[in-house]
Amino acid sequence: MSEEILVNVTPMETRVAVVDNGATQDIHIERAANRGIVGNIYAGKVVRVLPGMQAAFVDIGTERTSFIHASDIISVGNNGRGDRNRHAQSIRDHLHDGKKVIVQVTKDPLGSKGARLTTALSVSTRYLVLMPQTDHVGVSQLIEDPAERERLQQVLAEGLAAQDMEGAGGFILRTAAEGVGAEEIRADLRFLKRLWAAVSRRARGASGAELLYEDLPLSLRTVRDLARPSVERILIDSREGFTILQEFCGEYVPEVSGLLEHYAGERPLFDLHGIEDEIQRALGRKVELKSGGYLIIDQTEAMTTIDVNTGSFVGRRNQEETVFKTNLEAAAALARQLRVRNLGGIIIVDFIDMQDEEHRRQVHRTLEKAMSRDPARNKITGVSDLGLVQMTRKRTRESLEHTLCEECAVCQGRGVLKTPESICYEIFREIMRDARAYENDKLMVLAAQAVVDRLLDEESANVADLAEFSGKTISFRVEPTYAQEHFDIVLL
User: Fold this and answer.
1) Based on the number of CB atoms within 10 Å of its own CB, is 353 exposed (0-12), middle (13-18) or buried (19 or more)?
2) Taking residues 242-248, what's their average pLDDT?
């Protein structure tokens, strides 16, 4: 695979796109006024314990109080180490109103919900994750070679002894550590030792809700987390941002320095690579497939639904073959759409019905293979009795739609409007109510152009009958600023 990472930096926001063989796979957006807080560590204060929900609300100094569940609280023994297999039995065993807690954000605030918290703290570098409350040492599951896994564990053990960090906590060797030498691992260990000492000092001195550790900004997280061996280059269109990345890579990830390139072209970087068009397409419901089929993607509060349709694709042999090819193409396309749109939670896919059991298995395998390249944790179940594929995808930040858009002020997020005919009949009912309640002889209807046009044309006979029945003189006026569903009746 040939991957490129494109970084677009402005004073207001930073945008990152991961492009694989010309196709956009991931889009990340971070705005200066509203940075994500996943990975941040806070000194917080419990404001309310909810035993019935086995949860508590915690003030960490953000706009909305954050949320922690009993399953996210690790039991800490006398040695200061936590046991991940021994979670709190009752939230009241560990938290009470007013208690000071050290927590880490695992999910950004989503919609009306506050951030999700955990007491299982961790901090990351390029090659390592430090978990100071555990003794567990592990290796990323994506490193499959047993010899390499054993070598990395040996290098880590020697590094811990050399840095006098034995007993400092648990560690996970990240995927990027594959093939890395001992000196690089030791450099990360030295950095983590200094970093955690600083966090611990701040935690001891914190008197209220306070930020103790802030994760890196998006541009720096990009080279730390996304610069995999398959990445051929990292293009950044800001001279200042390029300099910052060079300094960061030189100190922490020198092997990435050679991938950095400053883009100084006149045409905007995201325009040149088609990312702007991809973002616009990712905000629509309909996704066209090359064959002529298409997907319909609907995002709701509880889940995301994806419907697969053959569209204009008629195939060449028979209907079953046409359906099978459309579903295969849709499986690969929807996996990419989930990443680009950053859709998470419960996802229901309604593939076109297939009679052949082998075809169903192949479509399911294709979907699993496509999702295996997704860095977000996901799980795919088999085909349900109703022919639906159910899956989950870990969600830690807002979707692209929720980041860039807001609820429509006209339809309040329904996505549909009442017809002018429906509004006319609502107006008639309102006039009848006003006729019984008030003695005025005249009234005026203020409404949108389409509604007034219908009242004076198709509904003119009904308006005349209503005026005669109510004994009122009815007049109309167009209000250009009114939405189609908005109207007022003024008594004259």
Assistant:
1) exposed
2) 91
